[in-house]
Amino acid sequence: MTICRNSKHLGLPRTLRVTFPLGSEIWEFIGEYHLLLDSVRPVWCKKSLSIICEPGIGTEICRTEESKRWMIRSKDQERVHLSLTDALTPEGTYEGNMSVTAEYPSNTFSLVTLLAFPCPKLDYNFYFTGGLGRIDRLNGIEYPSLLKSDHLVVLQTCDGERIPALHMRCTGARFTLIYSHGNAEDIGILLEEVGEIARHTRANVLAYEYVGYSLSGLEGHSPSEGGCYRSIEAAWRYLTADLSIAPDDIVLFGRSIGTGPTVGLASGIGKACAGVVLQSPLASGARVLLGDAALLLRPLESASYLQRLREQSVERAVATLRYAFPEGSAEVY
Length: 333
Description:
16 strands; eight-stranded antiparallel beta sheet; eight-stranded mixed beta sheet; alpha+beta; 25% helix
């Protein structure tokens, strides 16, 4: 099953670290805390020398029901240190001058990753509220957001990574598009655009996220080429295996860097899909690194991808879009 069975606490950091100034006597709180994925509410327990504590047994970080503020509390629950703000995530400063920060694997933000996959660096608040400020939240103002979208589904890659996806259904539609978005954007930013694609094409649209982007990145995963391929494969399995949608009713649609995983999947499934759409396809990774300086490679863009598709016996319709439609031109092969 590709649908993630446990989608709780999506986008929250898996690991937190508590620190405090030298000379403090609250040493029992210092250390690494791990998110308990099966807990009803978000709870991070301090990592012991043997196993991760269960809720209520060890020192933990959780949210108060009364003030809606985060707290670090002791094992006996008698000593409590509240956060100084009512942020949506536990990171920040607490009473006693303690600090809570999120910890990620050391390879999460390598130089190669930053150059090849410049994904947006947005916080949890954006994906939960759409970017509302504190005053707006208190006044009950609401913006569309990824985590509150009725179209949100959580998929799981073959490596166990959780990725969000938007599955927008169009009444009476036969075809479903698997949409692979471009670089420097994510599906949290593209909520309206995905809806526009569904409206203009009159098709169902599954816009999936790449490993390391948006909520997946906030959980500590790093973007990579392999992660992009695992992500689109999870989207394909979700439609064909979980929802039993016929491959002949699925069109692969990739934009910019999304043309890479699109072509990769199309090459693997051969004649199975209904068609392939490549919008502003990249000639190579050099285009990502060199930007406008790589425009000399444009004549090679369509040819390189089409040649790969033909070599892999992809015989369905293939279209390349040089610019955003409907204003741009399209070439169909």
